[in-house]
Structure formats: structure tokens, C-alpha cells
Amino acid sequence: MATMRHVGNIGMGLLLGIALTGSMGLANTQAKSLEGISTDSVSDIRLKQNRAQTYRNAMLAGYSATERKDYHTALINFRRALAARPGDRYATAAIRNMEAYIARERAEAAKQAEIVQRQETLAAAVAASDWACAAASVDRLVVLIPPDSADRSRLIAYRGELTGFIQARANLDQWSTVCPGGQV
């Protein structure tokens, strides 16, 4: 009967130890309480503890990186957490969120690059009096710039001026020289 209680106490200690894997003092206590248990069982318990610790550390690192808006680092850590605990819904949701944030950042970067390119084209078109190209550039910039922006309001007003220049010209087909490929 005393042996059964001893085994029960060891089992309870192991469960408590697995739940509290972050403490080194508990790890040493667990190692002492593991005496008398088969080597395979001890290896399984330690493997589970290592995976739990890896999962916890990776999730915490991922959340920390997310707070810094370092979504690539966060994604790497959430994937590590998922590898430590396959199928985990929290790691899976975090990965999905990071992928969405990264996609949004890439789309915003591409949009900003296009705005810069269109502004350069607009400046070149105005310098060459290529009003059709200038109007096409303004039309695209109006779409790219946020609706509540003062820049957008100025572009819309400028588009009205460009319409006047375009209407004053008769042969629009032959004077677009700045836009790539003559496209407007």
C-alpha cells in the first residue's frame, strides 16, 4: 500500500512539474522524484517538458516581436511554436495574423512605390507639356492617395486644370511622349 502511495505521489509530482516547467528548482526536484521510473517514461516526460518550454518561449518571442511590429520575426517564432505543438490553435491563428500583416505591409510598400513612380512621371509630363500623360498620372494618383488627404484634393483640382489644357489641343493622339509606351 505504501508503494502505491509513493507511485501516486510521484505521478502527481510529475504532473505538477510538467505544468510548471519554467522553474529550474522544480526541474531538479523532478529529476530526483523520477528515480524508480523507467528510462523510457523519463525520456517521454522530459521531451514533453522541452516541447512545452519551446512552445512557451516561441509564443512569447512571437508576441514580443508583434508588439515591435517585426512581423517576420514573429512569424518565425509562431511557426516554431506550432512545430513544438502541432495543430495548436493559438499558434495557427498567430501565424495566420502575421501572414496577413506581412501581406498588408507588402501591398502598402508597393502602393507607396507606385505613388513615387507616378509623381515622377507627372513631373516629367508637366515639364514636357504632355498633358494627356499628366492627366493619366493624376487620375492614377487620385486612386492611390487616401480619400481624406489634402494631397488628393489638390490633385483633383489640378486634374481640372489639365482638362483645360487637353481641351485646348486638337491632336491628342500624337503628343503623349512621356508616359511609358505612349499609354495614358
Kindly summarize this structure in a few lines.
By secondary structure, the chain is mostly helical.
Description:
The chain is mainly alpha-helical and 184 residues long. It has helices at residues 2-19, 24-33, 39-67, 71-84, 89-127, 131-144, 150-168. Helix 6 (131-144) packs antiparallel against helix 7 (150-168).
Low-confidence segments, given as residue ranges, are 1-27
C-alpha end-to-end distance = 91 Å
Beta strands, count: 0
The string of secondary-structure elements, in order, is HHHHHHH
Radius of gyration: 32 Å
Sheet of most strands: none
Shape, principal axes of CA atoms = rod-shaped
Hey, roughly how much beta strand do the residues contain?
Answer: under 5%
What does the average pLDDT come to?
80
Portion in helices = over 70%
Structural class: mainly alpha
Helix count, DSSP H or I runs of 4 or more residues: 7
Give a topology summary.
Elements: H1 2-19, H2 24-33, H3 39-67, H4 71-84, H5 89-127, H6 131-144, H7 150-168
Helix pairs in contact: 1-2, 3-4, 4-5, 5-6, 6-7
Keywords:
single chain; disordered N terminus; 184 residues; mainly alpha; 78% helix
